[in-house]
Queue: 4 jobs
Job 1
Amino acid sequence: MIIAIDGPAASGKGTLARRVADAMGYAYLDTGLLYRATGAKVLAQSADPADEAVAVKVAENLGPDDLSGEELRSEEVGTAASKVAAIPKVRAVLLDFQRNLASNPPGGKRGAVLDGRDIGTVVCPEAPIKFYLTASVEERANRRFKQLQEKNPAAIYERVLKELEERDARDSARDVAPLKMAKDAIHIDTDRLNANAVFDAVMAHIHTHMSADD
Ligand code: CDP
């Protein structure tokens, strides 16, 4: 069983996907982390994240140790991630890893929850349950700003808003696997819903789907 959760930056996919995976006893893959780790390693080499040769080499050599660390969550790394993510060869390298995990969830789990931008459209188009989360860019900037402020009191709302707008534009305009709702996804607008309400709505859909299958 694969559950796909897509949506733009800071739409609440990560928190939701982790909770759904826990509740279902499924594996969880934050696919954005793969792009963030690639972007961060390119930056660490003082290279340009849009440099195809460097980014592809980094993506090919990513290891489990590259996928953790607070620094991966910065907006600077988010921006670098969306630049490497626009390179088709980088996406091709990371695709196999994502598909493998989806079809063979680690730890003998019966399913996997993947969150990202193209899970329902490209990585796992056959997933039987897909969600697409949205919220206005101002609401998303507000949420991301609060998260960042906990770590860095000097965070600036206007800057977070501008970075999200630029990232949305880049993620939606790219030629390969752009941010787009799959035709068979359930759309949830989270502007007026808190994290618990979103989780409850998603779990209700999953249970309806599962009982229809019985
Ligand atoms: O956490 P947030 O929503 O800000 O971003 P993320 O999910 O960690 O993704 C960071 C960047 O990676 C995005 O802006 C996308 O450009 C890229 N990404 C992608 O292209 N495809 C995915 N499946 C996941 C992330």
Job 2
Amino acid sequence: MQTIIEPFRIKSVEPLRFTTREQREKLLEAAGLNLFLIPAADILIDLLTDSGTSAMSTAQWAAMMRGDESYAGSESFYRMEKVVRDLTGFRHIIPTHQGRAAERILFQVVCRPGHVVPSNTHFDTTRANIESTGARAVDLPNPEAADTQSRLDFKGNMDVAALERLIDEEGAPRIPLIMLTVTNNSGGGQPVSMANIEAVKRVASRHGIPLYLDACRFAENAYFIAMREPGYADWAPKQIAQEMFSLADGCTFSAKKDAFANIGGLLCSNDDRVALQETNLLILTEGFPTYGGLAGRDLEAIAVGLEEILEPDYLHYRIVSTEYLGRHIADAGVPIVEPPGGHAIYIDAARMLPHIPRHQFPGQALAVELYRHAGIRSVEIGSVMFGESAPHELLRLAIPRRVYTQSHIDYVVEAILEINQRRAELRGLEIVEQPTFLRHFSARFRQV
Ligand code: F0G
């Protein structure tokens, strides 16, 4: 069969809430044209993030009922630990309340002022947690990824030659670990090849530096490897994931992505000394090591989700349905980051709206128009989020897992294509108020 269907049926539904254009105009005005400040109840289709927004399965809900809420030694922890150990092989498995808590604990333990942590591209919380210790976060993406239109199979790869140069310049003792973000979220949701992980691992081993994965979207990355990398076509996604983890010395993980959970994270490593220090910090702010800031039922949801996420039928649908959105808008002339990534489609707003200069935030202008026109929420990843260091002006349409059907996506396609027809009429924005340093959450804008 040619038609790719959602590999689930729907047992419990959440009604969508429609608003009129007039209502949305008022809501936008009240929110200072910042979509983070619009109540979720007034959003029709929410593509702000794929994080924590998954629909859980009947098996996950059933498992939650057996959540063991014991403070110490919870059965749910041991069930979760078994699944994670089977998948990753790591010796120490520490639960946290979400990915950034794992990052904070890891970097507080291993980083000192003057240290440098390279990655293919750090996610913004990862960068912030590194830099809050006085260390420096350095992105070493594959140089060809700078062109949003280049169609490489593994555009998320790290530039291994640049990594070698960095180690030569800084010296290995100043590099506590090397990180690879799979898939590369800030770089367009693009995958990293097994060959690249192996190459980075070889360099890391030669210098005695541990390699960590930011494994948030490990299953999507594994599926891209199965589809695109020679030699892996016959491997199960789980085998590929196991191979990826076997090359690493540890990982941080947000269970809000590729574990279908609404909350949760993990910090894993093979280093007894580091793990002991991490556990001490964990107890200070997250909780006892057998729950780490989560309820026992959350650990159950993660354990089941980590198995479901690797089902080939699910991953096939996931990758193909994200591509469906990307191809339908790109083939009709909307410039996207090519090729489509795993969890999101990124529109190149600077290319789509060349009449809006960067300092007037083309990505934000497009986000506002998409909400005004059709009630769809997306997120700017450009100069609003990163200031002057933004490499591109992108609008991210992140797809929550197992939540929206094809007709929802067709509606999104229609809305984007209608805006594209009259893109010359869109106007830029200026910031009128910026109460916190995290301006994408808090800034208020005005049309210029
Ligand atoms: N690493 C990556 C690659 C991420 O995408 C995220 C979160 C994190 C770490 C932090 O995990 O949210 O559980 O603390 N990304 C979300 C997003 C917020 O919308 O892309 P967290």
Job 3
Amino acid sequence: MASLQPARGTQDLLPEAARRHRRVTDTARALAALYGFAEMATPIFEFTEVFARPIGEHTDIVAKEMYTFTDRGGEEVTLRPENTAGVVRAVLSNGLAQSVPLKFFYSGPMFRYERPQKGRFRQFHQIGVELLGVPQPQADIEVIALGSRILRALGIGERVELQLNTLGDPESRAAYRQALVAYFGARISELSEDSRRRLERNPLRILDSKDAADQRISSEAPLFEAFLSGASQDFFAQVRTGLDRLGIAYRINPRLVRGLDYYTHTAFEFVTTDLGAQGTVMGGGRYDGLVETMGGPAMAGVGWAAGIERLAMLIAEPQTPPRPIAVVPIGAAAEAAALGLAERLRDGRLAVDLGYSGNLARRMRRANRVGARAAVLIGDDEIARGMVTLRDLDSGGQSEVAEGDLAAALSSLLG
Ligand code: ATP
Ligand code: MG
């Protein structure tokens, strides 16, 4: 029955996957806090205009990937495809623009109508940070350093490469744009249909095309370098020097442009070769024009977002949950006492798995299946004596313990 399948491009997070996700978000959240980024959350849907104009009409996201619908009240809303525009909207709605610098961390689901494949989903999850109100390159450096630290903490620092580029200031960009229009215009018949459309509105985006013919033509396109203003070159040099000083390795990739329209100056991606075509695990950059585009004051911004699914796939060890204690009652009186005993152990912060039904053998099988470290066996006659049997499920050894001493015995067993 088709309706019993998850919708295309969505997936269930079963416990083992959920543990990997949690490891990524917990690691990122804790390290973001070290840098002074405070967690915040914006709604999962917003008025469509929050995304459409800032991200750019001719980006893949807005042109093809947004989940947009009219709600029952006739409002046009969109499931968020990314979170930078939402964070900026929140800053403006809540009147926070006066209190810069602002540093935010977020995590949560994003939605894009894409062709699902390994590492590419229609509902996926991101962690991200935004640093608003700091025009100096220190902000770019710090934001990249945080990203790099998170990847190292997740144990994948060695498997990703930091690629770096600059998109310059708006003047440099305008000059480069003209050069690209001239270059691609002369070869328009070789371009993909998408890129022919981009040529008019946003020729930089052609450099980001995934079409093979486009990529071949792009490889000979003029480089941004030649069009960078002195100020833009200087800014980029400061970012590079800052990263050098921190010992953060990078490779300049002059073809790196980011998917969204609002980037200026620094653009970067952490890329791995371990995930096939979906190798970008974290991407970001500076977006000094965005706040103004959205109706706010002129305000600098820089940040990144990372795909949690892609990071989770790269984590070596599946994270195992703490091993519980199995409480195994045998007999009617014991059955009645078991819930209370389990609660008392949980009062002491022990994880407890209660076998709900079945004979001793069946409940012991369950205890093994959940990976219990020990079993507390209680029978009717033991209850009468205030005793329980504690069985070490690793060694198989067991002993009788007074119920009052059980918590201490378990603590010493669990180390
Ligand atoms: P791509 O080039 O892979 O489409 P993008 O440039 O569209 O990526 P961003 O908008 O920069 O991606 O999002 C930041 C990160 O979010 C990506 O580097 C990736 O790790 C993750 N991401 C983006 N789209 C998806 C998706 N559909 N499924 C899973 N992860 C995604
Ligand atoms: Mg994309």
Job 4
Amino acid sequence: MRQFPPDFLWGVATSAYQIEGATRADGRGESIWDRFAATPGKINDKSDGSVACEHYRRWPEDIELMRWMGLKSYRFSVAWPRILPEGRGRVNVAGVDFYSKLVDSLLGAGIEPFVTLYHWDLPQVLEDQGGWPARATGDAFVEYADVMSRALGDRVKRWITHNEPWCISVLGYGNGEHAPGHKDWTKALATSHTLLLSHGKAVQAIRSNVQRAEVGITLNLTPGEPASPSPEDADACRDFDGGFNRWFLEPLYGRGYPMDVVEDHVKAGRIPSASLDFIQDGDLKAIAEPTDFLGVNYYSRAVLRSNRIPEEKNAPRTVHVRPDKTDMDWEVYPQGLTKLLVHLQTEYKPGPIYITENGCAYSTGPSADGRVHDVKRVDYLRTHLEACSDAIGQGVNLAGYFAWSLLDNFEWAYGYEKRFGLVYVDYATQQRIPKDSAHLYRDVVAQNGLDVEQAA
Ligand code: FCB
């Protein structure tokens, strides 16, 4: 048995737009994802989040599933357009009530709410006024953080400001794969800055409203490995790691923005010059506001091969991407999680770390016996929990693990094609069926440990 520390926070994660549906109910305003999904060609299966898992109505059933799994905590996000349909100003009481009831019921079920404020559903009106590249959107976010922490702060102690600033800035404003769909790297960099700045300011706002608050941010971190020992591959790896990981970690931990990343952007022709004129006096200090934990979303690693020299001139590959891949085409590589956690702990000393997302997409559905035998997900879960336990063994202060996701759901630009849930959702009937992975997770939580003999 691999035992986890006492008080280890076992949970699952979801986000509002991916599960709630009811996008027009009770005064909710339009979000950038409503607009983006309604734009032809943006979502692979032409779907949107208007129905999703009908969690807005079925949440008591979903809490029951979590209670059955014995979970200690639930990470969910609040839909900003339900709270402030115009982005700022008027508070929509019905929206606040929805989350307030959810929180009360979670607490009643012995499940601690872990709230993410921004999981990608910006009110469309704020996008119309300039979106995340505009500092005013950051100010609006801090006001929203203030509203929510006042409303729930008597019951919610753990808060995440933003989920995955890399995705919001690069996919949303750089390459346009996500809402709002801009392709402008100057905007992407300005977005990352507004996000980090508003994070730092929101930490302060939440702390002033919530006693014993624990506040942090969630980053999607992907460790890079050079495909060979050549200097070119080492440089490709530096470049990747810079844009993906260091660009966010370095300023958050008081080291400012890594300038090699800016130079990479200039060299690649993504931005015209290295001037970062969106940074103002005092910003870097505000971004580096100390936090209570770091949230880490881990899915895979990246193996980097230089494209600056021809393949035949580069050194032979010594690191190969393994053939074992999920439906996202992401390599299954649990060792990368251990390596990442140890690196974070030694390099940045972030205090407690939570894995705020980890999981895999496999399409496995119900068998003739009515159960969902998601063998590959069971394996993914096991090996990644072992990787967590290895990291703890190496001194990492890992305080909890949140599986992505409770339910199959709307996977952004992929629509409903990719199933990440521990619980299967039949979208025609909205029936929920716990997969074998949910049963495994239930055992793990009950034992506060992973039975390794059983796997062998
Ligand atoms: C992360 C997102 C989450 C989900 C998973 C698969 O990037 O935070 O909403 O889409 O990936």
